[in-house]
Amino acid sequence: MSTPTTNVLIIGGGVAGLTLALEVANHLSVTLVNPAHGDKGASRWAQGGIAAVLSPDDDVQAHIHDTLVAGDGLCDEQAVRFTVTHGPAAIQWLINGGVPFTPDPDPNARYPYHLTREGGHNARRIIHANDATGRAVVDTLLQKTIAHPNITQRRDVTILGLLQNNQGHCVGAYGVDDHHQYQTLTAHYTVLATGGASGLYRHTTTPTPSSGEGMVMAAELGADLMNLEFQQFHPTSLYDPDGPAFLISEAVRGEGGYLINEAGERFMPALDERAELAPRDVVARAIDTQIQQGTQGHVWLDIRHLGEKAILHHFPTILAHCASRCIDITQQPIPVVPAAHYSCGGVVTNCDGATSVSGLYAVGEIACTGLHGANRMASNSLLECLVYARSCAGALRQLSFDTWQAPAFAPAEPPTRPLTAEEQCLLTQWRHELRATMSQHVSIVRSNAGLSTAHEQLTLLSMRLENLEKGQRPRRAECVSLRHALTLAQLTVIAALRRHESRGLHYSTDWPAQHPTPTPSRLTLADLATRTVA
Q1: Is residue 280 annotated as part of the catalytic site, yes or no?
Q2: Which segments constitute the Fumarate reductase/succinate dehydrogenase flavoprotein-like C-terminal domain (predicted)?
Q3: Which of 216, 276, 342, 367 could form a disulfide linkage to 349, CB 3.0–4.6 angstroms apart?
Q4: Domains and CATH numbers, the chain
């Protein structure tokens, strides 16, 4: 093959992937791999909004300060400053593109759009589209990418791995289509925008969460992974064991919602002066403690005191969804529990999204830019998607597209025999066991004993999968997906065991104090191969 399929291959159709596609498509050919379910991932379910310095009463240094405090000593200050300073322009880009943000009805408002406040922020700086910001942004950007003549959408392909040439340059990806046929998508440059790893846990805030597949694909080519142990649990996910995941936005607390325990008492003011608006790691641990001490398996989020008019105005989506599950939030408190929400770690990148692998970039939740440190501050996630996707686009537009070398590896023909019912049942069972193990031992509160048990159980699952995969040439897509999830889970446990302190989202009962000189964690697949955790 003498020429690649496209200039830029983007894998992932959330806010980061869509923004990047639109920002480069006027200059370069783009193939956007966005499976039919891809635009229903984490970006779409982001309710609260996007943090940026927009009001004349706010300032960049204040947003930087709040982010550094929330990150608990592990933020890269340069990355924080880069993100915050480029935030307003990114928001204006969305406004110019037609995203229907909620206007401020006050004729004397200092900024034309309503700004709310969320945990960790000391100012109102969250711009939003009612309580469905992610959906509004994704829908707007998706329609623009569909209409763009220089963007080829591939909604029929599930990516299984990346391609590399003999010089170590990433030159595309391969996967299977809806007819179980292999597809090879070659490119000058490849960008991963595949999301995080919340799918490693049993309870999440997203119905179709990623399980770190893109992170492992990048690691297979030699990319470094960083801070995997910092998995954020959103404090308030709707408690309904029989229903699908649903996030109760942090903006609910930002507008005055109270957390109450089984005795009907608020418990956050006694723990932190910021009360319900303390950073997410603090609130999630406090809720977890109340749950362990109680009998209901959840706490409540109460907004009845706000009044029906205010609730309908600010939270129409949450009001309607809870009503569909027989909860009238104007008359009764909302049962909530923490749930896996966001991966603060991921593939190490610079401010342009470049990884350590030539030709490979990563943007969005999959990337670890240093912005979030040990704990992401509310609504900095979509901001990161926008800022780094736009920065990556600018870098790609400056690169050379004159030379290209074909991949050294091309996938073989797909397997002729599909998985048997028994094999499929085993894969489903093993994924359930993976999620149960992570939820029990690698969750909000951790211990050496629990992490060691998780390491043993995940190793056993990995060996079982290896036995099932023997003789598969090539491996079936379902096995590849589970292999990626298991690999990321094992690396997460190793990172957690190696951190001998409690910091941000990683709280260990064996190491309750903080190390005086914190450092980010770094791992490669070589760490997994040695199976060592010390």
Answers
A1: yes
A2: 431-513
A3: 367
A4: 6-229+342-397 (3.50.50.60), 234-338 (3.90.700.10), 421-530 (1.20.58.100)
